[in-house]
Amino acid sequence: MLNAVVLGAEGLTLNALEAFAFSKIMGLEQKPKVAIVDYGMGNLFSVRQACEHAGLDVSITSAREEILNADAVILPGIGAFGDAMATLSRLDLVGVLRDVAASGKALIGVCLGLQLLMTESFEFGRHKGLGIIEGQVVPFDNPKEGARKLKVPQVGWNSVHRVGNGQEEAWENSPLAKLRDGEFMYFVHSYIVQPEDKRVVLSVSRYGQIEFCSSIHSQNIFACQFHPERSGREGLKIYRNLASHIERLTSMRS
Amino acid sequence: MNIRIIPRLDIKGPNLVKGIHLEGLRVLGKPEQFARYYYENGADELIYMDAVASLYGRNSLLDIVERTAKDIFIPLTVGGGLRSVEDIRTVLRAGADKVSINTAAIQRPELIREGARAFGSSTIVVSIEAIKKKDGSYEAYVDYGRQSTGVDAFEWAVQAAELGAGELAVTSINNEGTGKGFDLELTRKIAEAVPIPVIASGGAGRVSHVHEVITEGKADAVSIASLLHYNFVKQSEFSGQDNYTEGNTEFLRKGGMVSKVQDASLPEIKEYLIAQGVECRRPRS
After folding, report:
1. Euclidean distance between CA atoms A129 and A117, whole angstroms
2. What average pLDDT does the segment B55-78 reach?
3. Domains located in chain A, CATH noted
4. Which residues of A94-126 are buried (b: 16+ CB within 10 A; e: fewer)?
5. What is the CATH topology of the domain spanning B4-275?
6. Which residues of chain A form beta strands (DSSP E)?
7. Under DSSP, is residue B282 helix (H, G, I), strand (E, B) or coil?
8. What percentage of chain B has pLDDT greater than the value 90?
């Protein structure tokens, strides 16, 4: 309605495409709404900054309704797996996140957010995860580089590689599209995910002698062990890709 | 494993400062300008240290953190005068990814555990500032190297790691700002005693010092100040940019530090390390 009034006043006639471009320039179109799940852990600020940089409309929330009504949900997180699951249960969000996964909406996990999607974790005992992706979360087992023992947690930049050969199409259709094979991303973690179905593994990285899954992609679900929001310009590219990923999934559902 | 190179910016009020032995602070310019430049030139992280907060209380640091975090998308560690979980929360809310604590942690080691529990271990960097004593032992100092504690630096490092610190930043006050190189013994002993990453800090006067502290000092990351700051000041001067007009950089031109510090840019440091066989994230042009 607003568009029509504005355009009418100018005495212009525009076709639908031009009107769309015009509304986009004027910032009149609906930005995709993204809920960042706030369960008291991790730097939500940096995730928010990166989302806003990519033109997403962000809310940081632990409210069930707001999460269910969003176009996409980001599960961030730093800290212990068991504590995180306990908090998600207390906030009554375990079922909500499973519903989001089943709804076909974009569900995005970052760092601990990736690990929480798995069936179970062996961090300080044995804990059940969200069970959205079948697989386990296990500790780095004595990483070494020659004679040098590597520190755990892995803290720093590491390269992210496509899995095997002929994966170009899967890569270019994922939120890692347009990133070069071997791009550096920022990691902070002591545990790694081992999905049962290797087809969900989008990228692998290597810490010492250990090769591990550094991101997964399965239909509407994308999650990464690294922090794209702290990985400079190339990381921001992933957030921009996520914005179009979300728009595509939203239009498929409507 | 990729070694991290982390520019360290010491901040006093609105200014970037640099001292020698953590004393005799000089104004170099605006921290945001230096931060932006380092971000664009391949810095792996940034550290902001409030140079006077433990003595005179909070100042404009939070504003600077907020402005930085809005357009710099690499990890930012903030330290200086943080005394409680609430202080840590305030700095994280302003946009820091990690905090660095020293004085308050030595006074009350439980702060490390509380901080790690509330925000995750990886958020808590414990800064250890040590002075080498005549008998060869190292003592931890607090309040920006002004106050002795009687605490042995190595015992403290092990305890801090056990309490849940995610990383340790190790500074030799003897070497800090002198340009004569890192204290390799101090860094190596701590790096070998703890399972968590160690950031070597204080003393780089030339690129080869950075290489030494990685290979001989076993550092997982290196924080660098003068080497980079002087390079940026010189570059700006050369290109006629007015980036540091508020900085008292006269001392750089008149010799003084210049004789001891052979400045280098981030790409120069990384190219050197890569040529020596050290893995690090190569800046992309």
Report:
1. 6
2. 83
3. 32-253 (3.40.50.880)
4. bebbeebbeeebbbbbbbbbbbbbbbbbebeee
5. TIM Barrel (3.20.20)
6. 33-37, 57-61, 72-75, 106-110, 120-121, 127-128, 135-139, 144-145, 148-149, 154-162, 183-189, 191-195, 201-207, 210-218, 221-224
7. coil
8. 61
Asked if A78's CB is within 8 angstroms of B195's CB, the reply is: no
| Sheet strands (E) in B133-203 | 138-142, 147-152, 167-172, 198-201
Q: Which of A157, A159, A180, A239 to mutate to test the interface with B (most CBs of B within 10 A)?
A: A157
Name residue B199's beta-bridge partners: B169, B221
CA-nearest of B188, B212, B209 to B263 is B209
User: Which tokens belong to B111?
Assistant: 């702060």
Cβ distance A8 to A31 under 8 Å? no
pLDDT in tens, B2-29: 999 999 999 988 889 876 655 567 788 8
Chain B CB contacts of A233 under 8 Å are 73
Residue type, A67: I
**What are the start-end ranges of the E strands in chain B?**
4-12, 15-20, 23-29, 46-50, 76-79, 98-101, 124-132, 138-142, 147-152, 167-172, 198-201, 221-224
The pLDDT tens digits of the residues spanning B189-198 come to 999 999 999 9
Q: From the candidates B44, B50, B129, B183, which is the catalytic residue? A: B129
* The pLDDT value given to residue B252: 55
Q: Which residues contact B108 (CB under 8 A, 6 or more apart)?
A: none
Q: What is the pLDDT of residues B82-111, one digit of tens each?
A: 999 999 998 998 889 999 999 999 999 999
Beta-carbon contacts of B258 under 8 Å, excluding residues fewer than 6 positions away, are B230, B252
- A 10 A CB-CB count for B4 gives 23
Distance CA A46, CA A227 (A): 10
- Cβ proximity of A47 and A229 under 8 Å: yes
- For tokens 């799940």, the residue is A37
Residue B242 has pLDDT above 60, yes or no: no
Q: pLDDT confidence of B55, banded at 50, 70, 90?
A: very low
**The whole model's pTM is what?**
0.90
Q: For residue B176, give the 3-state DSSP assignment.
A: coil
Distance in angstroms (rounded) separating the CA atoms of residues B140 and B149? 6
Which residues of chain A have a pLDDT value below 50?
1-14
Active site residues of A: 111, 227, 229
Yes or no, beta carbons of A46 and B69 under 8 Å apart = yes
Paired tokens of B237: 């001067």
| CA angle (B71 as vertex; A73, A42 as ends), nearest 5 | 40
Q: For residues B134 and A8, give the distance between their C-alpha atoms in angstroms, rounded to a whole number.
A: 85
